[in-house]
Amino acid sequence: MAPQDRLSQLSSQLNFPAGLLAGQVAIITGSGQGIGAECARLFANEGARVVICDVDSEKASATAQSINQMAPGRAISVHGDVLDPNYIDEVVRKAAEFGHGKIHIIVNNAGYTWDGVIHKMTDKQWNTMLELHATAPFRLVRAAAPYFRVKDGEKRCIVNISSTSGTHGNAGQSNYALAKAGVTGLTKTIAKEWGPQFGVRANTVAFGLIETRLTRPKEAGAFVTTPDGERVALGIPAKQIADRKGGGDQAQGPGPAYKDIPLGRPGTATEAASSILAVVSPLFSYVNGQTIEVTGGRYI
Known about the structure:
Domain Ketoreductase: 24-197
Strand content: 15-25%
Number of domains: 1
Largest sheet: 7 strands, parallel
Family: Belongs to the short-chain dehydrogenases/reductases (SDR) family.
Shape: globular
Radius of gyration: 19 Å
CATH class: Alpha Beta
GO biological process, one term: fatty acid biosynthetic process
Pfam families: adh_short
CATH superfamily: NAD(P)-binding Rossmann-like Domain
InterPro entries: KR_dom, NAD(P)-bd_dom_sf, SDR_fam
Distance between the termini: 31 Å
CATH architecture: 3-Layer(aba) Sandwich
């Protein structure tokens, strides 16, 4: 049974026959591929209408089309760069139109890494990561405030995506680590400001090793292009991946795979997206202001 089918079965058993997110409208940034795309599919399968936001127009459109083939009318695509404040306003406007004046969920997922050791980190690398992973989520939440600071009895939730680089630090990622650590403070502040009067929940989901283009071999050639045209290579050097899978020597044989992860493997994009679905769903209705690590047991 496919993961989305198991979730639908669970929804029915828990007296949510129309889905865990029936009638809700969700903005998901970076949802043209990877975790964001899986998140959009799972949300739509649980009754939500989803706004696909991605800088890649073709991937955003393809994701929306695949969702609408499964559930007609459940998705729209609004492509653009979250670093552009005008795009943020456009996303909120179109989401509100799509939701007939209402927005219920924001998942701030868009992002990539631009690594460098501290003594070689450029201002551009530093500022881009802070803009992308901290400022852009803040701007989206601020722009959507009129649709969250309301008292209509409907549930609303914000999930800011972080990383174990933000909760534990990571060599070569001082820029990314700071931005992702800052997301936790933003999330807790939203929970404290918008929870008491409006019932808005805000949580952070911090991922460990998940199979995406950011964790595949850098030699595969994946890249993103900054607004000024610079290409940023994505991924991890193949040697680091091989070391992470377990070393060993000729006498002893290979070491255990992913020995720092108790489950012994990376997570999949669907598993990562499922954790986000759980957080925004009624199953987590009393979970607020938390940072939830999804790591396969890493760092316990």
